[in-house]
Each structure stands twice: as structure tokens, then as C-alpha cells.
Write a structure and sequence with these properties.
The structure holds two protein chains of two kinds.
Chain A: H1 2-26, H2 31-37, E1 45-46, H3 60-68, E2 73-75, H4 86-89, H5 92-101, E3 105-107, E4 113-115, H6 140-153, E5 160-163, E6 167-172, E7 179-189, E8 203-213, E9 221-227, E10 235-240, E11 245-249, E12 279-293, E13 295-296, E14 309-311, E15 313-314, E16 327-328, E17 332-333, E18 354-367, E19 377-382, E20 388-394, E21 400-415, E22 418-421, E23 424-432, E24 437-442, E25 457-459, H7 470-473
Parallel strand pairs in A: 2-18, 14-21
Antiparallel strand pairs in A: 1-2, 3-4, 5-7, 5-25, 6-7, 6-24, 7-8, 8-9, 9-10, 10-11, 12-18, 13-17, 15-16, 16-25, 18-19, 19-20, 20-21, 21-22, 21-23, 23-24
Chain B: H1 3-23, E1 38-51, E2 67-81, H2 83-86, H3 92-99, E3 103-115, H4 117-120, E4 130-131, E5 134-135, E6 144-157, E7 161-168, E8 188-189, H5 198-201, E9 205-217, E10 222-232, E11 239-240, H6 260-269, E12 277-280, E13 290-299, E14 302-311, E15 317-322, E16 328-333, E17 337-348, E18 353-369, E19 371-372, H7 373-376, E20 385-399, E21 410-421, E22 428-435, E23 438-441, E24 445-454, E25 467-477, E26 481-492, E27 495-506, E28 524-532
Parallel strand pairs in B: 8-11, 12-16
Antiparallel strand pairs in B: 1-2, 1-28, 2-3, 3-6, 4-5, 6-7, 7-9, 9-10, 10-13, 13-14, 14-17, 15-16, 17-18, 18-20, 19-22, 20-21, 21-24, 22-23, 24-25, 25-26, 26-27, 27-28
Amino acid sequence: MITRCSLIGVVTVALLLGWASANAADTPPLTTALTEKYGLKVGMKITKENADLIKDLVPEAVYNRTKNGDYIFTIGKFPEPDTLNPAKLWDKDFNASSEKSRGKYDVDAEAGIVDKATKQRPSPMPLGYPYPDIDFKEDPAKVGAKIAWNLVSLAGACGEQDHEGARVVSAPHGGSYDRYFSPKVIRQYVDFRRNAVSLNRPVIFQEIFFFQEPSDAFGSSNLTWRWADPKKWDSVWSYSPSTRRVRRLTAANRSDATLGTEFTQDDGTPMYNGKVEMMEWKYVGTGAALIPVARGAKQAEDDYTAHITYSAVHSTSLSYANVPDAYEQRYKKVSFGYQDTSQKYASWWVSDLLWVPVPVYYIEAMPKDPYYNYGRQIFSIEQNSFSPVWKQIYNRSGEYWRTGTLWAEFPRFKNGDKDFVCFDGVGTVIGDERTNRGTAGLDNGNMPLGKEGGATVHYNSGRSGDIFQLERFLEYGK
Amino acid sequence: MRPWTRWSALLASAVFILMNLVFVNPTKAIFLDDARTIQLSGVFYNQVRFRTTDSRRFAPKASDWTMLQHRYFIDPQLLVQVQPWLQHAPFGRELVDLLHVEDARFFFNPRFEYDGVYDYGPDIFRHKLRSEGKPIPPRLQKGNRLQLFEVYGQFQLLKTVNLRIGRQNLSWGETDAFRLLDRINPLDNGFGGFLIPLDERRRPLMMVRATVGLGDYPQWDIYNAALEAFIAPDSRLPAGAPGRTPWGVTGAASPRGFPPTLVASLAQLGRGASRGNQIERPDRSLKDSRWGTRLMWTWADISFSLAYMSTYPDSATAALRLNEASNPVLRLKYPNVQIVGLTATTPLTPLNLNYTVIRTELAGFFGEPFFIENQNFRLGVPIPKRNVIRGVIGFDHNQWWRFLNPNNTFSLTGQLFYTGLQGGVGGIKVPLQRKPGEYIDLDRTSFVTTFGINTLYSAAYFFNISQVQPSATVLYDWEGAWLFQPALTFIRDPFRFRVEYSWLEGRFVQSLGGGIGLFKDKDNLAFRIDYLL
């Protein structure tokens, strides 16, 4: 009898320990623990002298640049160690909807989402993470695709994004930029949004990319429809003011360098703005990385709190006066290397970002299209929020090419009893290791000009899906 | 414009450019207000061309390495978002709500052009500013033009209707370089150059243009259905440089008694010569308006458009007529032409040619005017008209040649144009003498091929000074003439610098769809610098 009780006790303890250890393994480490683990301190500057501290927290190319004095990092902290925990980060609707998706979806051979019950691609996908419970014992291709879907699901919570005038500049290592463009971008997420949008076409995402500057590109625009059908390529049209006609483009054009910069349309939010099914995904493993967060416009120099989420205000632009749920991206404090009076860092580097160590997943993407601009890409994705951190890009010959990061924010907005939290990549830096040039871009298009205020981004703008019709797209051209 | 006014305008333009160079650099925004509702943009360029061959045949004598063109181009553009202001106007909010105005904007685009070749170019083209002691009328000061280019208001109403009202350009169709369905606006031939972007050549018309979205029909796999219509009650016609121009094509002089019908008709009237030319313009009326409509849709990832328009030809057809004083004149006629066409374009994704787009266009031109000497120069006989079929098949392809350019694709584009004249061709000629007393024949069919290639190199390959864009374009007229145009463009915002060479060769003939051989003595080397605001 004693033996039987002992056995039950041992088994129970073993089960509890097993559960506890398994649970512990599933819980990503806190940012404070990572800060301590890597010997970092809040407010610490990482320069070429102490770059070794972040060797395991950044891609090798970034580490090398830091050792060379091209890049600088300032270590920050989140308001809470678990700020990026979805339960704290997102609103109730988002978390409830994510919970409903638990165990409901699988990925098919094309890396597309399928409902386990119906074996069909649900359209539209509901708000939240489609895969809140990834089983890492599954085929790495499936795990990779699921992480990618969680990544692209984030911005759907915004409904629509109206970018008034981002600015993207391309510069050599030293000196000012020599090429730039300023796009007005209107995006509508049909999948993963809060309220269904009335549309007859089975698309999951629509985008208009309208060039405002430079003058010879003014009036040029691109319209993209991303189909729910996993095998159907994006439909892309462009309008050129020099010919005044709409021309068909292929989806592959989205990976071409935009106006000679190091940026492609697929580099946009959320760091992979292409169709998930166009890549072969693979889960590689876990690690830790420094995630960038911009300082708020009025944040003190000695305040190292990384406000990756903040309370946004209703859109101040008159265009959204009648849209009660529209809110706008905050203004930030960002300066680029070329803006320094006496340049110290690479022209495209942002020296005043705050960097917080976070746990990441690594996933690889290989384009199925042999003509795609990039070869293998390695993404690091924050484990709690699935927010993007770094992107390492190889060329088609397998040689290392570029390193990019996209810093993101989760603006919050409350209107009456409605809570909104959204995700948006607000700035990007891409360094080209082969040409020693780089591109930097920011939604607050005035910042690269050294000015405050100006262009920002409006979320939940309430645009109807009709604006993404070809004839409406024409109105943005001259 | 009087001479002093012209020089004032030039001086003002130079000061304007200088001020921009000094005070505006790429790090300055061009929105004039914090709310970003007023956007100022603009392109300013200066281009000089030197002919690289002596003039040939019957053209005015000019030697090589003399100036062919010195073009100043100032094109500021102002785009104002009116919608936010509209809401603050009295009853503005009510109007916006009632009409569901989603977007309202105003576009203003004056344009100034000047060609110095007439003032300080070769003597033969230099324009005397005074004649017989009197100033030449402004219209003859052909190098100098200030015009209100595009000025229009645009409104998005009732969710599906887009209205654009005012002076504007509109282009339909799928072609580059040559126009099929793109015959809505007349062209400005007042300045020379080959393969100039058509948008610089179009003459804006007073026009009302409406687009109505018809929605999607997924049950038939039809998306993006829309109907577009325009009406342009405007008397503007193609413009040319009056008088002698270095770009003009000159045929052989008429021998005595040629052309026989004209000589006979004039003799019948008791006149030795006609009393000049007279352009026959359409009235500014609904009856004479250009108008058209097109239906657009996408089916199975193929974008289609079906269009009909009533418009006017790109060039005049001369006919002998009597003016109001019963004097014989050569009436330059632009008779109304009806065009019906269908376009289709699609990426070749199903064939795994993911970087290739095919575009096609087929159009019927009904009632196009032609020249038959014994009809056009005979009083009381209508000018001959024929129907013409024009078609094009083209491709746009992006190709990676990473060993040549690891960062950007090469963009290749090609087009094959077909033109076929319907009905009898007997007696139809080009009214230009290739030999004294011998007009150029016109074949029933013609083919023209164009091919272009370009790529963009990172500034890293050019000492981080500028990006470099090499390009080459070939235009081949199957009648036996070609244009080869290599160019190199250096790009460093806000500047562009371009070197372009145009090499022309071929027979002095003209086909229905081509005729580049007529310009075979216009080989030139061009240097152009752009400043972008």
C-alpha cells in the first residue's frame, strides 16, 4: 500500500515537474533577465569599444559595423519586463479572437492557412493571431509558416493605414543622401481586421503606393491586390504620369529596388509585405536580439523607457474629422547619421533609438519565384508579440547582401467603450553590406528633413474597399 | 509677347531657378502648409542638342556640330487638397455629406518653354525679331511660350463617381511612342526630339471626364469593372512651329506645272497661286467636341478595355478651297475621325514568366483623311477618306543579369505596330516630293518595331556621386529606316543629367505607321540637366 501511494506520489510529482519545466520552456525570458544575462545596463551606450556585449544580440553584419564604429546602440527598457506579453499588449477583443483561433487552423503545402475542419482557406481571417499555440515539434516548414502568418496578422488590427508621406532616403556611408522618395501609402487589411469590410473580391490585402516626391516620380502610383487564393499571385497595376496610362506589372516587381534605393515594397510593414505563400518558410530556432524602439517626440534624453506601446490621439487631420475611431501615429524623436553636424555614424543609421533585448524566433524564407530579388532571408521575430526585429538578406547566389530592421509600435486608442490596439512598422533601416550604402525610412516624413510634425499615419481610417478599384486609383495620378 | 517681355520672362525664370538652387535643396519639404494640403512640385530642365551630321537633300543648309535645339522647360505644379477646406466653407459639410464627397482636389500647372535656337542658333533658323521695321507678331516668336497647361478640379462623389473638370490630358490604350487609342489630346510638335515622353507633347483640352465604378462580379471572375467617359468642347488642334524649323522635313521644290491638278484648278480660277493656308478648326460646340467612352474590366487576371471615341487626326490634310473672299486657299483640314478599339494586357504568370507582361491593342479608325492629288486639289471634290486598322503587340519584361548589375533588373520593352489601310490605295500619296514632281508613295500596310532596354546602377558603382541609368532604344520602320538612341542618365537628387545620342538612317519615305527616315539628317547629341523641386 505504501509502495502504491509512493508510486502515485512520485508520478504526480514527476508530472507536475514535467508540466512546470515544459511550461517554463514555453515561457520566453523577460527582457530584464536578458538585459542582465548579457551584461547590459539601461542607458548604456554600445559603441565599438564594448560591441562584444551585443555580439549575440544582433546579426553578424551589424556587430561588425558596430565594431567599426558605424553603428551605436543605446540600451533601453520596456515600461514593464513583460510589456510585449499579448495579454498586456493587446486589447480584449484581439486576445479573445486569438483564443478562438487556438487549434483551429493549419497550414497547407503552399504555406497557406487552412481551416482544420473544412480544409478550406477561411476568408476573411478573424482578428488576432491565427496560430497562438504553435507546436514547435511540427515540421519546421509548418512552424516557420505559422510564425510568418502571426507576423503578417499584426497590422490587420489597424483596419486601414493611411500613410500621409513617409520618406525613404538612400545614402553612401558618409555624407548626405543622394536619392529619396516620399510615398503616400494607403493600405487596407481585409484579413485579421476588427470589422469586416464589404468587398466582392476575395482579397486579403490591398495597397496603393503613391509617389509624392521627387518631382519626376510625382503622380506615379502602384495598386496591389493580394488574393486569398494561395496560388494566385498578387495583381499589380502601375500608373505613370509620363504615359498617363495604367500598366500591368507582375507581383515580382514588388521585390525590385524602389527608385534606386535599398528598399523594396516587400520590405514594408511588417518587414515582409509580400504574400506568405510566395515563400518557403522554415523555423530555425530561438535566441535573443535587440529590438529597436523610437523615443517619443518629447521624451527626455535621459529617459530610457522604450514606449513601444502608447496612448494615441484621435486623428487631428480634418480628413478624419468624421471618423470617430481613427487615430494617428505619434511623432517621434529620430535622427539619422547624415543629420549629425559632425558625422559620426553611417549616414543611414539612427543613433537615438532605444534597444531592448528580447527573445526571438529565427525563421528563414526562400522565394519560390526564381526571379525574386532576394535569395534567402532570415527573420528574427519577437517571441511574445511576433513583432519583427531583424532581417538578414542574401542574394540569389547565396552571398550575404543586406541587413534590415524595422522598428514597430503598438499604438492604443480608446473611443467610448471601444479599445483599439494596432501594430505598425514606423521606420526602417537597411544596410547594404556589398555596396556600403544604406536606406532609412520613416513614417514621420519630416524627421529625415530635420523638421518636426508633418506627415504621420492614420489608423482605422474607415476607408471603404472601393478606393482600391482601378478607376479610383487613377485619381491619385496627375 | 514683346521682346522686352520675353527677356523679362527669361530673366525671371533664371532668377527663379537660381533661387531654388540656393534656397531649396532636397532636404526641404515642398508642402506649403502643415496640414499637407498644398503641394508644390516641379521639373525644370535645360537641354541643348547639336546636330552631328550636315543637313541633307532639300533641308535648309546647316552644318554638323551646330545647335539644333536649346530648350528651357519650366513646369511648376501645384496640387491642392480642397476637401478639408470644403468642409469649413458655408454649407460645405452639408454638401460633402449630401454628395458623399470623399476627395476634392485642384491642380494648377503653368508651363514655360523657350528654344534659344531661334535667337542664337545657326543663322538660317535665327529669328529676326523685327521685320521691315515692325515687330513680328508674338505667335511667330516661336521659341518662347508661356501657357496655362493643366488646370482642373477633381471630385470623388457618391462613392463611385470621379469627376475631373478643366483643362487636362487624358490617355487611353497600351502603347508607347505611337498613339492608337491615345488620340484624345492633340500633340504639340512645336519642338523637336525623338521619343520625347508623350506627356510633354500632349496639348491639354478643356474637358469633363467622369469615371464610374461598376464593381466586381466574382461569379464571372470579373473585377475592377468601370466606365469612363469624356467630352472636350475645345478647338485646339496639333501645334507646330510656324515657319522654318531645324526639325522640319522639306521635300523637293515643285517643278513648273506641278502639281498638275492644283495648277489647273488655280488656272481655272484665273489665279497663279493660292492665297496661303487656312486651318479648319472644330467649333467649341457639343457637335464638334471630342468625346469618348470606354469600359474597363479585369477577367482572369487580364485587364481589358473597350473604347470608342470621336476625335481629330494628328496631322492636317490639305485641300484647295475658296475662302470667304472667294480666293483660293489651301485649307488644312482636320476632319472628325471615329475610333473603336480593344486592349488587353496581362502578366504571363500562368506560363511562369513572372516578370513578363504582354499588352495588345487593336483599333479601327473610321474616316481618316488622305491625300490624292487630283481630289484634294480639285475644287468641289471632297477629300478622300479611308478606314485604317492599327494594332500593336508588346511586352514588358524585367530580366536579372546579375553579372552585369547585381542590384537591379534590366527592363526590356518591345512593341510591334501594324497599320493597314482599308479600301483602295490608288493615287494615295504623301504630299511631300521625294524628287521634283514625284510624291512619296504610301503602301497599304506598314510595320514598325520598337525595342528599349535600361537598368539602374547604384551610386556605389560611380564613386557614390550619382546613380547611373544606361538605356538604349531602337525604332525600326520596316520600310527601311531606323532610330538608335543610346543614353546615359546620372541621378542625384534633386538633379538629373542626361547625355543622349540619336542616330537616324534610312530611306526618305513615309509609311502609314512610321516615317523616321524623313528625319535622317537630324542625328544629334543632346545634353540635358534637370532640377526637380
